[in-house]
């Protein structure tokens, strides 16, 4: 709870200066998990614990904030072809580029971790605001075109119905499944946010050099626990990283930190190669099966081949080692946990009901009625920029050059 409050505190730290706190679209709730968060109201069913997503009665009703909860049948009648369209477009994208699943999973992760699953990641920078996706630490996020293609098809089939935030979730789930991973049953009904701040990307995404304590803290900021952290790290089974993201492991004076020392030496040669140009090279995080969603990532770590510091430490830290060992030995256990943790991640800070909007195009928010919502249309400047600045925002933070 402490860390959630901390984050709420920084995001709306200037709230106190404003007389109209209600207008702040980030007022607290966005950094908590919808239903299922510690202290959240139980779902509207008997028996306490939330039902596993794929079976049994599904939670419906209101979330802890009195807003409609995400709903497994949200599009069943409103847009029955939703999931089929996502499936078709994702398959096309994978046929063109086998690394697509990793990128789609990453888009959803980056969106959810930075101010909630509200498609803020997709908004482009404007004249007066640098958006999340353009922060220099945007980690080479890619495949926005796949999301745009899905959106274009959906606008033909069911105009104005499906949010970009839900498309991100559905595309990520579909990508995991088409790469050989589990079927992930997501609930829908997310709406699209109005804002996107580059600085929020900087402060909210976990860094690749973090150790377990830092990783746990980062995940706790968005309501995810240590188990979720280990489980979701397993998404690296289809991931790649640039050498620059693990250069810390080759820093001058650092003894080869790879338990598989031959592997470490080969990697260092690959990445440095006598000069620094190699730092832009990419390395697969699960070298054995890069494009297959399996438990190979955990087997690599156990074998002493964890690439990033944040991978390696999951096996060396006694508090996470048992889970890594389990997943390395038992793919079914990993898949079952991944379904649960990804669904949980998909509830971070969601907007539902009448909050936000359903964007017509995912990269730009719909024009807002400037007479009824005067704060909202300053050439796509941040909504209510006076009091809803992101963490450590100063006077220059709305500038595209900040
Ligand atoms: C990432 O940010 C850089 C600016 O720092 C920008 O040039 C690049 O286009 C961004 N990447 C994407 C995919 O938007
Ligand atoms: C990678 O594949 C090889 C050959 O199939 C196998 O011997 C090795 O154990 C695998 N490594 C890991 C970490 O799974
Ligand atoms: C962490 O979250 C998972 C669900 O993602 C849950 O199964 C587990 O009980 C939680 N662990 C703790 C210690 O709360």
From TrEMBL:
It comes from the Eukaryota. It is found in: Secreted. GO terms for cellular component: extracellular region; plant-type cell wall. It is an enzyme of class 1 (oxidoreductase). Heme b binds at residue 236. It catalyses: 2 a phenolic donor + H2O2 = 2 a phenolic radical donor + 2 H2O. Its EC number is 1.11.1.7. InterPro entries: Haem_peroxidase, Haem_peroxidase_sf, Peroxidase_pln, Peroxidases_heam-ligand_BS, Secretory_peroxidase. Keywords: Calcium, Disulfide bond, Heme, Hydrogen peroxide, Iron, Metal-binding, Oxidoreductase, Peroxidase, Secreted, Signal. Disulfide bonds join 79-158, 112-117, 164-362, 243-271. The active site is at residue 110. The keyword Heme applies. Ca(2+) 1 binds at residues 111, 114, 116, 118, 120, 132. Binds 2 calcium ions per subunit. Its cofactor is Ca(2+); heme b. Residues 69-366 form the Plant heme peroxidase family profile domain. GO terms for molecular function: heme binding; lactoperoxidase activity; metal ion binding; peroxidase activity. One of its GO terms (biological process) is response to stress. Belongs to the peroxidase family. Classical plant (class III) peroxidase subfamily. Belongs to the peroxidase family. Ascorbate peroxidase subfamily. Removal of H(2)O(2), oxidation of toxic reductants, biosynthesis and degradation of lignin, suberization, auxin catabolism, response to environmental stresses such as wounding, pathogen attack and oxidative stress. This is Peroxidase. The lineage of its organism: Eukaryota, Viridiplantae, Streptophyta, Embryophyta, Bryophyta.
